[in-house]
Amino acid sequence: MTPEIENAFAAIRAEFGAESITRVERMLEPGGGGDRHPLQKAAKWIMPGLSTTPWHDPYAYDEIAPVVHALEAAHQAIKEELNVAWAARREAFSDYEHYLTRQENWQALYLFREGGLVAESATTVPTAYQLLRDVAVDTEKICPLLECHFSTLLAGAAIDPHCDLWNFSINLHLAVDIPDGCSITVAGETRSWDEGRCLLFDYSFEHEARNEGTRPRTCLLIDLWHPETTIPERRALVALIAEIRRLMGDD
């Protein structure tokens, strides 16, 4: 570890206790994270001690349930604003740039990125922007290392099987506009989106998606902290990943 990471970790241990970030430190050891599920092997970091369940009940966690209920209650307004933006402000969307690839047939409208809200989206999709700020950003439930965006998969497009970087955040989908013929597979189990409802899954497991319909499929994706992580662990993870990105020249 660099001196910057060591100093950050020491400060967290001093505030929260010597054992407060043990799981984060174990993750950084050779072979850290312990045994992995075969469909997690492509993830870069696996923090030990978190549930090894690919699919999660979005209503089961006290931390996440208020986000789910707020998004689902506002679904119709979110969908209407999204459709207006897609028709009249297409320039607000861009090719989605995953850390592994970039796809022209996978479009994104960002609400939160690079550690902060995307101010331009406040006028483009105001309901989603305000809700995100109120229930996920101001409450620090969003993982600031990642993002929130409308994910629009064009007709006929597919997202190839892949693992995301780690297991200490979790991916929430609000199904905004879902034509027939759309599905998502996580760790070998395929599900469909139910428009107006949320799905929650651990994207350190291999997953893929497809739109075999005749019009675009849009979900609102939010990267939340895994609800089984603690406040000191979250602080340590932000310090760790921010320093790694700095060293790699990503900032």
TrEMBL record:
Q: Which GO terms describe its molecular function?
A: dioxygenase activity
Q: Which UniProt keywords apply?
A: Dioxygenase, Oxidoreductase
Question: Which Gene Ontology cellular-component terms appear in the entry?
Answer: membrane
Note the InterPro entries from the entry: Asp/Arg/Pro-Hydrxlase, Asp/Asn_beta-hydroxylase, IPNS-like_sf
Q: Where is the Aspartyl/asparaginy/proline hydroxylase domain?
A: 73-227
Claim: Oxidoreductase is one of the keywords in the record: yes
Q: Which Gene3D superfamilies match?
A: B-lactam Antibiotic, Isopenicillin N Synthase, Chain
What Pfam families does the annotation carry? Asp_Arg_Hydrox
PANTHER family from the UniProt entry: ASPARTATE BETA-HYDROXYLASE DOMAIN CONTAINING 2 (PTHR46332:SF5), ASPARTATE BETA-HYDROXYLASE DOMAIN-CONTAINING PROTEIN 2 (PTHR46332)
Family of the protein in this entry: Belongs to the aspartyl/asparaginyl beta-hydroxylase family.
Name the UniProt record assigns to this protein: Aspartyl/asparaginyl beta-hydroxylase domain-containing protein
